Amino acid sequence: MKIVYWTFILSFILLSCGEGHKADMKDYGIIPMPNEIVSEQGNYVLQGEKTVAVSSDESSMKVFQYLENVLKNTSVQLKRIAPTEQADISLLIDTTLPDEAYTLEVSSHGIKICSNATAAGLFYGVQSLLQLMPVEIYDTHRKYENDIEIPAVRITDAPRFPYRGAMMDVGRNFLPKEEVLKFLDLMAFYKLNKFHFHLTDDQGWRIEIKKYPKLTEIGSYRKQTQVGHCDYYYPRRFDGKEKQGYYTQDEIREIVKYASDRFITIIPEIEMPGHASAALACYPELSCGLGKTYVVRDYFDVFDEVYCPKENTFDFLEDVLVEVMDLFPSHYIHIGGDECPKKAWKICDHCQTLMKREGLKDEEALQSWFIHRIEQFVNSKGRDIIGWDEILEGGLAPNATVMSWRGEEGGIEAARQKHKVIMTPGDKCYIDHYQESPEFAPLAIGGFIPLDSVYNYNPLPAELTPEEQAYIIGTQVNIWGEYIQTPEYFEYMAFPRLQAMSEVQWTQLKNKDFNSFVRRLDKEFKRLDFCGVNACRNFYEVNLTGAWNDVHHTYEVTLKTFCPGVEVYYAVNDSVVSSSSDLYKAPLALSEDATIYAAVYRDGKPLGKITRKSFAVNKATGNSYQCVPPPVVEKVNEGIGLTDGIRGYTRDLRRWAIFREDSVRITVDLGKPVSVSKIAFASLWRPFDTLWPASELCVSVSADGETFTSVGNQEYTYDFTQTEATRFPVSYSFPEVTARYIRLELLNGGLCPEGYYHAGQQSRLAIDEIEFY
Ligand code: ACM
Ligand code: ZN
C-alpha cells in the first residue's frame, strides 16, 4: 500500500475547522445567530433572589413563567415586580419594535429585554439570554448551584422570515405526546414558531374526532408495519407488531397550550383528497366505491384509494375541520393536497358526472374544484388553507398558501400568482433523508441532506423579483415518519439539522457563516446532551470522500469533520484507530483498493465513533468514458460516477448510473495504451424500482477509438431467490490485451418478470463502478 502525503498543498482546506472570515466577531454560542451583537466590558452575575420587572399581561407572563421554570434548576429565585419599578431583570414592552424583534442588554448592573406587545420578542430575548448562560443549567441530573455569569452584551435582533417551521409526521408512525412536547421545547430554543402537525395519513389517523369515533377506534390502529425500505424486499416483509396511537382532544389542547406558551403556533394537517386510506378504512362510503377493501395501510406508497368528491364526503370533512379548528387556534389549516392519484375518479360515475356538470376538463381540475370547495368552507370560518404544491394543478384556490415541496418551482409559480409561499423543497428541507453516509447510517427514506446542505439553503429564489420574493413567508424542515419508529430516531433525524434550519429561517443572509455556526453548535451539543436529546453525532465523526486528482494523477481521499478545533487520526486497512495512529494533515493518495478508518479527537480523547470507507482504485479509476445512450439518472459525480473510485451500494440509488434502453455501450478512454486482463462491475437489483441486473457483457478494445476488436463476451445469471435488493458484482477475465480504449456493451435484464413488481414493464439497468485490472 502506497500512501503519499501531499504536504506541499498548504493552501488546501483540510477540515471545516478553518477559521471563517467572521471569526473575530464574538458569537457567544447563540443559535440562530442574531443580527447584531456588541460586546461590552464585564459580566452580570445571576445568583440568589432577583427581581423581574414585567407587566402582568398574559403574553409577558408566559415569558416570565418560562424563564422562572428554566431557572428552577439553579439557585436563582425570581420575584416579579411591576414593570415601572427598578429591577435586576426587566422584560419590557417597547411598541416601536417590529413583531418578534427584541433587544437584549446585559451589563454588570442588570438585564433588560424589550419587545413589542405580542411579547414574542421577549421570549426570543430570553432564549438568547439563556444561551449566554452556562449549559450546565440544563443538567437534569444536577442542580446548578454556582453563580451564573453572563457576559455583558447588547443584542439587537429580529427574524429574517415570519414563518419558521418544522413538520412532524405522526400519521405514519405515532409519537407519544411527551415527544411532541419535547420537540416543541427544542423548537423554542431556536426561535421556530410554526409546528406543522401531520395528523392523518394512509397508515394512521391520530386525532380524536368526537363526531366520527371510528377514525380513532379503527383508523389509529394497524396490525403490522413493513420492514426495511419499501424498495428492498420482494415480496414485502412485515414486522407482525401491532401499532396504535392517537391524541385525545384533551391531549391536543394540552399540546396547543404548551406550544402557545412557547410562542409556537400549531398548524394541523388533515390530508385530502389523497393519503386517505386510514379514514376510508373507517368510512368506506367516503370513497369512490371501487369494491376495494379499505384498510389502514401497513406499508409505504402512494395509494389509489382517495376521497370521492360527493356531498357526504364534504359533510364529513367539514365536520372534521370544525372540530379541528375548534382545537387549533391557528389561522392556517393545512389540507394536504399532495400525491392524489386520479385512477379512482377516472372510473367513478359520480366523479365523471360531477366533472361534466361543473365543466371540469380533467381530474386535475376536479382536484382543484375539491380544494376550492374546502377552502371556501375554511375561509367561512375566518381561517386560510395551506396546501402542498399540487394544489397549483388545475388552478389555485383564491386565498391558498402554497407549501412548495417538489423543488421550488411550485413556490415560484405561486409567488408569481401573488400567493403566499412556504418553501420546503425536498432536496434541502426533507430531513427524513440521510445526513451521514447512507452506507452505514440507520435506515432512512433515501437522499442525502447533510448539515451544511441544510445550512446553505436560501429560500428566496434569485429568479423572483423582490416584490415576488415578498410572498415567500418562510421555510420549514419536514420530518416524514415512514422510517421513524421511535422518539430517539426522530431526534436523531431532527438534530442538529434543525439548528442549521433555524439559521436559514432567522439569521440575515449577511450574518450566515457556517464556520461560526459549527463553533456555536459544538457548545450547543452539550445542551442537547443535558436535555436528553439523541442528536446525530456525525458532527464528531469523519466523513471520507475520494476523488481522482487530475493534476496529481492520483486518487485522493479527503477526511473532513464538521467539528472545529479537533484532530483527525486514521488508519489504512486497519479498523483500530487511536491518537497514536497517523494524524491527518492532507489528502491521502491511494494507488490500489483500500479501506480508510478515521476518528475525531480533541485533547487526546475520541469525540465520536470510528467511521470507514472503502475505495476502489484500479486501472479504470479516474478515466473518462462515454455512454451511448447516456444514463437517464446519475446523481452523484455525474459524468465520472462510473470510475470515481466508489462502488455503488444497495442503500443509495444516487450512486448508480441508470440506463433505460435495452443495451448500453460504455467506452472508457484510458488516455494511453494500458494492459488489461479483467473487467469488473456491479449491477443493482431492486425490483420495486424496475432495476434488474445486466444479462450479458461484450468487451472490445481499440487503439484509436474508431476500430474495435472483440475480446469476448459473457452471459450472466443471478440468484433471485433472495428477497432483498442486492448489488450483484460480476467480472470477466480474458487473455491480457493492451489498448487505450476499452468498450463494454451491456444488455439489460429484459422485461420485469411475472410475479414481481411492474411485471411486463421494461426493466432498467443500474451500473456502478467499472473496474479494470
Ligand atoms: C410530500 O412530501 N408528499 C408533501
Ligand atoms: Zn368518485
Overall description:
It contains 17 helices and 35 strands. By secondary structure, the protein is of the alpha/beta class. It has 4 domains: 2-157, Chitobiase, domain 2 (2-Layer Sandwich), CATH 3.30.379; 163-530, Glycosidases (TIM Barrel), CATH 3.20.20.80; 538-615, Immunoglobulin-like, CATH 2.60.40; 624-772, Galactose-binding domain-like (Jelly Rolls). The strands form 7 sheets. It has an 8-stranded parallel β-barrel with strand order 9-10-15-16-17-18-19-20, surrounded by 7 helices. Strands 2-8-6-7-5-3-4 form a 7-stranded mixed beta sheet, covered by helices on one side. Strands 29, 30, 31, 32, 33, 34 and 35 form a 7-stranded antiparallel beta sheet that branches. Mean pLDDT is 94; it is low at 1-25. Bound molecules: acetamide (ACM) and zinc ion (ZN). Residues 288, 308, 345, 348, 350-351 line the site of zinc ion.
Give descriptors for this structure.
about 775 residues; alpha/beta; Chitobiase, domain 2; eight-stranded parallel beta barrel; about 20% helix; about 30% strand; globular; binds acetamide; binds zinc ion
